[in-house]
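User: Is it possible to get a 3D structure for a protein together with its bound compound? The compound here is zinc ion. I've pasted both below.
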Amino acid sequence: MSSLRKKAVMAALAAALLAGPGVAQAAPQAAPVPGERAAAATITWTLVRASNPTQDQQTAYNLITAAMNAAVARYNNLSDLGKNITVRYEPGVPTADGNINGTIRFGNRSYMNERTALHEIAHTIGVGTSSGWSRLGGGGTWTGAQATALVRQYDGSSAKISTGGGHFWPYGLNYDNEYSGTAADRHVRIVAAMVSDGL
Ligand SMILES: [Zn+2]
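Assistant: Yes, that's possible. Here is the predicted structure of the complex:
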């Protein structure tokens, strides 16, 4: 075999070897499955603090931190939802509120608890605040299939999620007397199902 021919054979052999394992790598990547999330996202939060907080501010910061840590941990344990949330203490806010831009404001001390934090996180994700909410929840009953299936799993085959005033129930955690560990878990799972529905 001439050296030139030998080189050609070796090149062909190398190409054949490369083609083996290379086939899988060269194949087009599998198309994403519709409705499947690409990767688990995370909810994060930060508290805007005064540089030299008063006693009132420091007390509020402590309560807000405990409430938000508990609520965000519950979300991250039970859902793949993602949001970067900025939290402020504003004594002029009568209760608390949450905006889809990612801002939560706490005012009144009695609302600095996990129940309220979960409820306001839901507003930052779209409950009562998004175009998807208006489309799927604007008529007084949530019409998305996944969240509806979930509430039926919890409460029976005739259960539904009612909507109004930017809120939902059951499991909307609209008042402190709705809170329990089970209700809080179901709240998060329903909000996640609403997102899957198109919230
Ligand atoms: Zn609300």
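The two ends are 70 Å apart (CA to CA). Residues 12-28 have pLDDT under 50 and may be disordered.
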